[in-house]
Amino acid sequence: MKNILLFFIALMISHATLAGAPLNESSAAALIEKSGLKLQIENLPEMLDQQLIIMESQGGPLPPERRARFREAMLKVYDQKRLLPRIETRVEQALSPEDRRQILKFLDSPLGRKIIAAENAMASKEAMATLEQEGPALMEKLMKDSARLALIQSLDNATQATDMATDTNIATALATNYALISQSNMPDKPSFEQLKSEYEKNRLPIRMQMAQAILTGMAMSYRNLSNEELADYLAFANSPTGKRYFLGIGRVLDRVLVEAAFEFGRALADTDRKAI
Q: Which of 88, 106, 171, 183 has a 20 to 30 A CA-CA distance from 26?
């Protein structure tokens, strides 16, 4: 479980770099790349692999042929070439061209670039190892600095980081479990909606675990940013455009992942029928 939490920290905090994007760019594709959505979609198969490992540790390993079919269906459903056009369409619906222009202008500002660089630095395995080793001491120090703690907690709330991590965790766990149930010989299989309802019942404990992980990750990621810089970032996140940005991106990702979870179960069931 610790490994997947560290993976979520890196994924939910990091942004993708956008090389050579014009300053007046307002396309949804540009925003998807710089916001980190594209990076999250690219990493979904790895996240699902992590979820499968957790489930296998609890219920036993899958036979090799079933695991192969699981991966075949997963790579088909979660192909970025398949999901990114959906996300692009929904981002265009959720954010106006002017919103997208203002968001990209902030991300391309000196502070925005500094934030992106700090967050990208968290995406490496080396950074995750450092976080695991130094995280407890870093959090102990943060708890003694009430002003900085309040800033980071406020940034978490404003950027929807914990909520997005929780949504993604639930969606990937739901996808994995529903796919495995679809592949099983259970006599009374729960429907997708029934299974989704069970996961939603556990949202609060999942969110509490994610909140602690995200707080630790943000403390590490932003350790070289001053309180003034964090306050400026918070001001953007709390602006009308910033609110529409973080809320809109979160909703888009959640909807697309829930749809993909349902499609994953159906795809795996189809793959199994063809194998019989």
A: 171
What residues does each domain of the chain span?
2-9+24-275
Contact partners, residue 28, CB within 8 Å, separation at least 6: 88, 89, 91, 92, 95, 100
Residue corresponding to tokens 């390993």? 61
Look up residue 6 and give its DSSP letter. Answer: H
Residue 9, CA distances (Å) to 39, 44, 205, 244 in order: 13, 14, 17, 23
Average pLDDT over residues 38-53: 80
Question: Phi-psi category of 139—alpha, beta or left, where left has phi over 0 and alpha has psi -120 to 50?
Answer: alpha
The SS3 of residue 67 is helix
The answer on pLDDT for 115 being more than 50 is: yes
Degrees to nearest 5, angle at CA 111 with 105 and 117: 100
pLDDT at residue 113 in the model: 87
Give all strands (DSSP E) within the chain, no chain letters: none
Q: Which two tokens stand for residue 4?
A: 């997947």
Between the alpha carbon of residue 12 and those of residues 28, 122, 123, the distances in Å are 19, 10, 10
Most distant CA pair in the chain, distance: 62
Mean model confidence pLDDT for the chain? 83
